[in-house]
Design a protein that fits this description.
It contains six helices and no strands. By secondary structure, it is mostly helical. Helix 5 packs antiparallel against helix 6.
């Protein structure tokens, strides 16, 4: 490639060209998707911190998808990007189930630790069931069954790897991140409350020690001197 004559260059074409174009638009698509997901979660939960817990579970699925491709020796093709976008919605759903149940339990009077343990115990079964159902539906595509199976196989393998990896780790990672974000929220609330109280005290103290409009205080007038007739 280094010994090419002047005016001759190598440019990708075919699948390589379409993959380059897709990868350029993929960053924009995934960024816009994450912003939309975060905005909707903020409206649903009424807080800015707990939706971050759900978004932190997304890298787990991407790591599982890449690991599945490496183990099977498949390439990063166009269907794989589509599968990764699919994983974003599936993994977000699992994390929402855990966080929403824990928040409802805390509002009903349970402690944070008990609420998170209860959420993990009661939501683990539906999460595992939906994961198994999704993997079963993707298995024929992963085995390249039917016409065009080789084209769909990398996408199915990426989805299966991402689902397995994220399901196992989300049951541990999401509760830990939930408690961390809850601690950060409590510290932020206490710090903001102290700032508000200190600023209010400073304003009241300034009002008590403020000088009158004349600028200087006038001393009180001395009482009148009374002279008795005997002294005269």
């Amino acid at each position: 490639m280094k010994s090419l004559p002047k005016g001759v260059k190598v440019s990708p074409s075919g699948d390589a060209e379409s993959l380059n174009e897709l990868s350029q638009g993929f960053a924009t698509a995934i960024t816009a998707g994450l912003m939309m997901v975060y905005a909707v979660l903020v409206l649903l939960f009424g807080t800015f911190l707990q939706p971050i817990t759900i978004l932190f579970s997304l890298p787990l699925s991407i790591g599982g998808a890449i690991a599945a491709l490496l183990l099977t020796g498949k390439q990063l093709t166009t269907p794989v990007w589509i599968g990764i976008l699919m994983l974003m919605g599936i993994v977000t759903k699992n994390a929402i189930m855990l966080v929403e149940f824990a928040i409802e339990s805390i509002h009903s009077g349970q402690s944070r630790e008990d609420a998170m343990i209860d959420a993990g115990m009661k939501r683990a079964r539906p999460i595992v069931m939906t994961t198994i159902a999704m993997i079963a539906g993707m298995t024929p595509s992963a085995l390249a069954v039917g016409a065009g199976g080789e084209f769909r196989s990398p996408m199915a393998l990426a989805v299966i790897g991402g689902l397995l990896f994220s399901t196992v780790l989300s049951l541990v990672f999401v509760p830990a991140m939930f408690m961390v974000m809850d601690d950060i929220g409590s510290l932020s609330w206490r710090f903001g409350k102290k700032l508000i109280v200190s600023s209010a005290d400073a304003e009241h103290g300034g009002d008590h020690h403020a000088a009158p409009p004349g600028g200087q205080t006038q001393p009180p007038a001395p009482p009148p001197k009374i002279v008795s007739p005997a002294a005269e």
